[in-house]
């Protein structure tokens, strides 16, 4: 399996739509190179706004954290997103002829609004675990997708840079660290047999909903 921790493995198994997400036609098109370029760019423009709200969600994680270690992990993700991934996103879009202004002015698609605000709401109305369960499919799903597409051999795909980013040892380490953060946060709050508690069902439900919203997000790049 992926090595992203026990909670992830169990939530993933229970989330009915996991394969709809990680084996979505958009993902298959990234791997075999058949994804139309304009669809990929539409996805990128929406993803810029998505990442803004995800940065906010990780910042909320720092506010909801229970220990300094949890706080550090969230802050490190905010730093990576805001100072490294967002500038990269802006550069990739600029190279594709999409000015920064377009990224700011393109209306958010309803599926984008639904997903990002769902995750933020999980954090506002819930606790640290609710927020992590809603964030997990995004981080770990891309790790799983990148690793699989690279394994299946996507060297010829025009999207090989995208794939290489998520297949990289750097990103895979991040995924293992986030998986470990989740397991430790669960153990600290719910003990050694968390899956026996009613609370577990709620967290698995958060994960499953975010998974469905990830699957729907790919559609933004396939619809016209
Ligand atoms: C729709 C959508 N889902 C997931 C990601 C991937 N992603 C989002 S934030 C982040 C870093 C840690 O949270 C990563 C890898 C994306 N870009 N767009």
Automatic annotation (TrEMBL):
| Pathway recorded for this protein | Cofactor biosynthesis; thiamine diphosphate biosynthesis
Instruction: List the catalysed reactions.
Output: thiamine + H2O = 5-(2-hydroxyethyl)-4-methylthiazole + 4-amino-5-hydroxymethyl-2-methylpyrimidine + H(+); 4-amino-5-aminomethyl-2-methylpyrimidine + H2O = 4-amino-5-hydroxymethyl-2-methylpyrimidine + NH4(+)
**Keyword annotations of the record:** Hydrolase, Thiamine biosynthesis
An example GO biological process term is: thiamine diphosphate biosynthetic process
UniProt-listed Enzyme Commission number(s): 3.5.99.2
Question: Is Hydrolase tagged as a keyword?
Answer: yes
Residues forming the Thiaminase-2/PQQC domain are 11-222
The main enzyme category here is hydrolase
Pfam families, sorted: TENA_THI-4
Q: Name one GO molecular function term.
A: thiaminase activity
Query: GO cellular component terms?
Result: cytosol
**Family, as annotated:** Belongs to the TenA family.
User: According to its UniProt entry, what is the function of this protein?
Assistant: Catalyzes an amino-pyrimidine hydrolysis reaction at the C5' of the pyrimidine moiety of thiamine compounds, a reaction that is part of a thiamine salvage pathway.
- Protein name (database record): Aminopyrimidine aminohydrolase
| Source organism of the structure | Paracoccus salipaludis
């Amino acid at each position: 399996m992926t090595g992203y921790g026990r909670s992830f493995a169990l939530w993933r198994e229970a989330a009915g739509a996991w394969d709809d997400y990680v084996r979505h036609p958009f993902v298959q098109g990234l791997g075999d190179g058949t994804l139309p370029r304009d669809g990929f760019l539409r996805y990128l423009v929406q993803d810029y706004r998505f990442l803004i709200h995800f940065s906010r969600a990780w910042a909320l994680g720092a506010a909801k954290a229970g220990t300094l270690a949890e706080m550090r992990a969230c802050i490190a993700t905010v730093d990576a997103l805001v100072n490294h991934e967002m500038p990269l996103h802006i550069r990739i879009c600029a190279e594709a002829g999409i000015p920064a202004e377009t990224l700011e002015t393109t209306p958010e698609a309803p599926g984008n609004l639904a997903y990002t605000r769902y995750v933020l709401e999980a954090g506002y109305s819930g606790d640290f675990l609710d927020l992590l369960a809603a964030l997990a499919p995004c981080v770990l799903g891309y790790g799983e997708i990148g690793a699989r597409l690279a394994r299946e051999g996507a060297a010829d795909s025009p999207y090989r840079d995208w794939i290489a980013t998520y297949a990289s040892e750097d990103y895979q380490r991040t995924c293992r660290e986030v998986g470990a953060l989740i397991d430790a946060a669960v153990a600290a709050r719910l003990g050694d047999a968390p899956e026996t508690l009613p609370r577990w069902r709620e967290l698995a439900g958060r994960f499953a909903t975010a998974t469905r919203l990830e699957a729907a997000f790919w559609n933004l790049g396939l619809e016209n």
